[in-house]
Amino acid sequence: MDRKDWPEVASLIYHGTNHWYQSHGMNAIFTGAVEDTELFCEVYENLDPGCCILAVDQSSQRIAGSCFFHPRETHISLGIMNVHPDAMGQKVASRLLAHITNLAEAEQKPVRLVSSALNLDSFSLYTRAGFTPQTAFQDMILSVPETGIDHAPTGLNRVRKATLADVSKMVALELEHNHISREKDFRYFIENKSGIWHVSVYENETGDLEGFLVSVQHAASNMLGPGIARTDQQAAALIHAELNHNRGRSPVFLIPVTRRELVDTMYKWGARNCEIHFSQVRGNVALPEGVVMPTFMPETG
Ligand SMILES: CC(C)(COP(=O)(O)OP(=O)(O)OC[C@H]1O[C@@H](n2cnc3c(N)ncnc32)[C@H](O)[C@@H]1OP(=O)(O)O)[C@@H](O)C(=O)NCCC(=O)NCCS
Questions:
Q1: What is the CATH number of the domain that holds 275?
Q2: If you take atom 12 of ligand 1, which residue's CA is the nearest one?
Q3: Counting atoms of ligand 1 from 1, which one is nearest the CA of 95?
Q4: Do 102 and 219 share a domain, yes or no?
Q5: For the chain, how many helices (H) and strands (E)?
Q6: Given 3-state DSSP classes, what are the helix, strand and coil percentages for the chain, each rounded to the nearest 5?
Q7: In terms of domains, do 16 and 50 share one?
Q8: Mutate which of 12, 22, 30, 83 to test ligand 1's pocket (most atoms within 8 Å of Cβ)?
Q9: Residue after which a domain boundary falls, among 98, 113, 128
Q10: Which of 223, 196, 220, 198 is nearest to 300 (CA)?
Q11: Do residues 148 and 249 both lie within one domain?
Q12: What's the CA-to-centroid distance between 128 and ligand 1, angstroms?
């Protein structure tokens, strides 16, 4: 993908995703302006220049498919993947995917992604190509009152805004819990040159980091994550802090379905389910520990 392709790729992401969901009886994912989805090109090119591949129709020269990938020390993440509605079912995605899995094999790295459990096409695409679902997540949406969340979880006083001095501890925490490492992402969020990111950390009495949670606030993506916490209670305190950073908005966040206490807390706060996703891995990777909260901006897997 070149800079000149951004508007067409943004349109493909917007229309391809909305078309798939709407033609399967669900609501559109992107509801703002088409141009807003250039956010994916902008953030991903900032983080990983040159890491988006396109499938181009030779006769019309139109873009039939696009896929971003994010090479990191420990793995390659994949996403967002889109195929034009006119080209779906013709192995466009399979070929884009093969390009990235070949790269990963050459570097002997696992490939990781988050795929919808409601979308049989993407589920099939990845599991046919050797990916294995690892963790199920419920996507929850919560409308945050202008006055903030009306519940104060234990440990809220241990949450503070992240600084660049926290990056190495965040990296270590994620490596311990989710077996991936990606320092540049955390630097990028905390530096926040575009003004759309916010990061909280959970620090214990002895100054050790027990968790962190990022959020993005943009017309094309209003999500909490990525995040890690050792316990459900710490995760709830971090979610509380990031929700209150989103007063008057309705961010989405992914909670592992197995974290009973955290799920119950979110229901108590008024969260509702809006999707279900699986983290999927191609290659040998240990199961995550603690509370892992992935996101699609940028996709973490
Ligand atoms: C999901 C999406 C990318 C798939 O693109 P596509 O080009 O139509 O997919 P392909 O034609 O390459 O098919 C993928 C594979 O799934 C297989 N497949 C499809 N339905 C299947 C089913 N029900 N059971 C088993 N396999 C199935 C196909 O046979 C193909 O495998 P193969 O190449 O080994 O034969 C496309 O539908 C899309 O853009 N959807 C909207 C956006 C989206 O959901 N993106 C993914 C999330 S990031």
A1: 3.40.630.30
A2: 91
A3: 12
A4: no
A5: 8, 12
A6: 40, 30, 35
A7: yes
A8: 83
A9: 113
A10: 223
A11: yes
A12: 9
Among residues 72, 96, 113, the one where a domain terminates is 113
Q: Is 90 in the pocket of ligand 1 (CB under 6 A)?
A: yes
134: in domain: no
* Residue-level pLDDT, tens digit, the chain, 301 residues: 999 999 999 999 999 999 999 999 999 999 999 999 999 999 999 999 999 999 999 999 999 999 999 999 999 999 999 999 999 999 999 999 999 999 999 999 999 999 999 999 999 999 999 999 999 999 999 999 999 998 999 999 999 999 999 999 999 999 999 999 999 999 999 999 999 999 999 999 999 999 999 999 999 999 999 999 999 999 999 999 999 999 999 999 999 999 999 999 999 999 999 999 999 999 999 999 999 999 998 887 6
Range of 107's domain? 3-113
Are residue 286 and residue 151 in the same domain, yes or no? yes
Q: Would you put residue 207 in left (φ > 0), alpha (ψ -120 to 50) or beta? A: left
CA of 169 to the centre of ligand 1 (A): 38
Q: Count Cβ atoms within 10 A of the Cβ of residue 184 and give its class: 0-12 exposed, 13-18 middle, 19 or more buried.
A: middle
**73 and 215 co-located in one domain:** no
Nearest ligand 1 atom to the CA of 128 is 34
Which two three-digit tokens encode residue 234? 């710490």
Please tell me the distance between residue 286's alpha carbon and the centre of ligand 1 in angstroms. Answer: 26
